[in-house]
Write a structure and sequence with these properties.
Number of helices: 8
Structural class: mainly alpha
Strand order of the largest sheet: 1-2
Order of helices and strands: HEEHHEEHEEHHHH
Number of strands: 6
Strand content: 5-15%
Shape: flat
Largest sheet: 2 strands, antiparallel
Distance between the termini: 153 Å
């Protein structure tokens, strides 16, 4: 009895193994061409037109896609693998198929003036730790940013220097100095961008000049505010700050991958207009044109017509064709012959 049960279990296991192999094994007349670097599989086999017409098209296409995907996955399992955090990862080879790019390859960034100076003098950038000791709170805090260490902006009392005006507000002076430093950094950044672009003037922002005007500084400040993640929505305005003029409007383009239904309807409308024998009539445009023609005719009728024979042969300009002309000085008023 035990032997029969063992044989039954072995037979069931062999049957299950055969079913699994049947699921992952796909037979093709021509072998597929694989580019594992791009996870690409090219099927050179011609499609079965008879089966495509007889069967449900969606079922046929799903079956074909499933078989080709299974062959691609089988090829991936032939690559060297390794386990990374409870996951099996395969090392893909270099791609062999060149795929078109939407945008050109970005060029390397040009060095700034400080980077060029540091390279010339041999100055190497030293990496600083992100955390420093704060003597006030007696704990480690960040060197920059929110809740940074040794933050003097949180002081409720500021000592007035001996050389400063005792009636001057030191808090507003500190805020003003910080805004000037931010504006100076933005000016240097824009100058580096203009210099990297070989002296070309940027479309918006500040032109690199020795003495920028007030309008240029306003535009640069506007660009700096809009460069945040929220497009300057939460940036505070300065007192008496005005919106810069002639900044241009941002063009809007339809997304490359968007609403396929709307794109389909748009193409169908274009084909319908091209296929129709009668041209599409714009009622508003036709009415406006008719009204302009009627106004032009009415204005032409209101003009006074010229009388025939009222003027000389040349009729038109004053002093021509008006009969005898009186003589000048010393002619005694005789007619000119």
């Amino acid at each position: 009895m035990a032997a029969l049960m063992i044989e039954h279990v072995l037979a069931q296991a062999e049957k299950d193994e055969a079913e699994k192999l049947k699921l992952i094994s796909v037979d093709k007349e021509l072998e597929l061409q694989f580019d594992l670097g791009n996870l690409l599989a090219i099927d050179p086999n011609p499609a079965d037109v008879k089966a495509f017409r007889q069967q449900n098209r969606e079922v046929f296409l799903r079956s074909l896609a499933r078989d080709n995907t299974q062959l691609l996955i089988n090829q991936l399992w032939t690559l060297p693998t390794q386990r990374v955090e409870e996951a099996v990862v395969a090392t893909l080879p270099d791609p062999s198929t060149r795929l078109p790019r939407e945008k050109p390859i970005p060029k390397p960034r040009a060095p700034t003036r400080w980077e060029e100076f540091a390279k010339l003098k041999g100055i190497k950038k030293k990496k600083k730790t992100n955390l420093v000791w704060d003597e006030v709170s007696k704990e480690w805090r960040r060197r920059w940013g929110y809740k940074r260490a040794n933050d003097n902006t949180k002081d409720w009392l500021i000592e007035v220097p001996a050389t400063a005006d005792p009636n001057e507000d030191q808090f507003s002076k500190r805020v003003k100095a910080k805004k000037e430093r931010v504006a100076k950094n933005e000016l240097n950044r824009l100058r580096n961008l203009a210099r990297a672009d070989k002296g070309k003037i940027p479309g918006v922002g500040l032109t690199p000049t020795e003495q920028p005007s007030r309008d240029d500084l306003g535009k640069a400040m506007h660009v700096a505010k809009r460069s945040t993640a929220s497009a300057g929505r939460f940036q505070d305005k300065l007192p008496k700050e005005k919106e810069p003029k002639n900044m241009g409007k941002k063009r809007k383009f339809q997304p490359l991958l968007g609403d396929f239904g709307a794109e389909k309807n748009k193409q169908l409308e274009i084909l319908k207009v091209m296929d129709s024998k009668k041209p599409k009539l714009d009622v508003n445009k036709a009415v406006n044109r008719q009204m302009r023609e009627e106004d032009a005719e009415a204005s032409a009728k209101r003009k006074k017509p010229f009388k025939k024979g009222g003027r000389g042969k040349q009729g038109g300009k004053k002093g021509k064709g008006r009969g005898p002309v009186r003589g000048g000085k010393g002619q005694g008023g005789k007619r000119r012959k």
